[in-house]
Structures are given as C-alpha cells and as structure tokens.
Specification:
Blueprint: E1 20-21, E2 31-32, H1 34-37, H2 70-80, E3 90-94, H3 98-109, E4 112-118, E5 126-132, E6 138-144, E7 154-157, H4 165-173
Parallel strand pairs: 3-4, 3-7
Antiparallel strand pairs: 1-2, 4-6, 5-6
Helix pairs in contact: 2-3
Protein name: adenine phosphoribosyltransferase
EC number: 2.4.2.7
Subcellular location: Cytoplasm
Length: 174
C-alpha cells in the first residue's frame, strides 16, 4: 500500500484503509488508527507545487508528511457530520487516544478542548469517577473542576468504544 497516496475520488471513509489490523494479539486493540493520524497529503500541480513536492519546496525535496494530513481531516469531517447545527461549547477527549481526535475536532470547530484523564495526572482540583476498562480492570478517570459549568454543551470524543466503560465514566463526569 502506498501510504502517501490520496485517492483522487475520495469515497466516504476512504481513510479507513490506512488503519492497520492488530498483529500483536488479543491484548491489543483490533485496529490501529495511528497511521491515519500521520498520513501525508501528496501535493499536485493545482495546489501550487509538483507531485510529491511542497509548494515552494526547496530543491525538489518531498513535502514533509505533516503538512496536510488529509486522512485525519476527512475522518474528522465525517465524525462531525451527525452534529451539523448542534450547539457545541466544548470538546472533551478521553485519555489517551481520544486526545488526538478530540483535539482535531476542537480545532476544526474552533472550540476549547478538555482532557478527561486517567487518575493521577492532573495537578488541579478534579472530579473522579471509577470505571471498568475493556480488560475488566477497575480504574478511575478524572476531570478538572474549573472548566465545566451547568449548561455547557460538551461533545465527548474517544478513538473507539469497546465495552463503553470509559465513555460511561466520562458522561458521568461531565
């Protein structure tokens, strides 16, 4: 698979092919989307450069992969589709991979971002909520107390929801 290739006609969900299946066994998630997050956009002539070269690139060096992550942009756009017109004041991402999608969603919406963390990582006053993770382990999730007030409309984002334990805890916190 050519990871730098962006299809000319991008069907909805085209970026899913960038996600790699689990090769490490049952203790790992079934799908790894991290390749999606660093997918490069290949520049074309109509974008001001030549194929594979950043516009104004120096001496024909290839465009750095971080210039325009089209896969992530299209994924965020698709994720936000059901929320078109919904009033959203703040985006919250669930520790840890939900931080990536959540921050991208917040940036796209021009909204603030709230990190909902596993216990022990925040140095400010927090609310805590116990939960059982996908592997059956008891854990605690925390959220800072100085950000959310009654009436604030929050969009919760996580990378995936397996058993729903972390999402239920995040909902209770909010």
């Amino acid at each position: 698979m050519d990871l730098s290739h962006v299809p000319a006609a991008r069907e909805k969900g085209w970026y899913l092919a960038l996600m790699a299946p689990n090769t490490k066994g049952p203790n790992y998630a079934w799908l790894d989307p991290s390749r999606l997050y660093c997918h490069p956009q290949v520049f074309s002539d109509h974008m001001g450069g030549t194929k594979g070269v950043a516009p104004g690139g120096l001496w024909g060096h290839p465009a750095p992969p971080y210039l325009s992550p089209q896969g992530l942009q299209d994924c965020v756009s698709d994720l936000l589709q059901p929320f078109q017109g919904d009033p959203i004041d703040l985006v919250a991402g669930i520790d840890a991979m939900g931080f990536i999608l959540g921050a991208a969603v917040a940036a796209t919406l021009h909204k603030g971002f709230l990190a909902i963390r596993k216990a022990g990582h925040l140095c400010v006053e927090t609310l805590a909520e116990p939960y059982t993770d996908y592997s059956g382990r008891e854990k605690v999730m925390e959220m800072r107390t100085d950000t959310v007030t009654p009436g604030v409309r929050i969009l919760l984002v996580d990378q995936w929801v397996e058993t729903g334990g972390t999402m239920r805890a995040a909902i209770r916190l909010v």
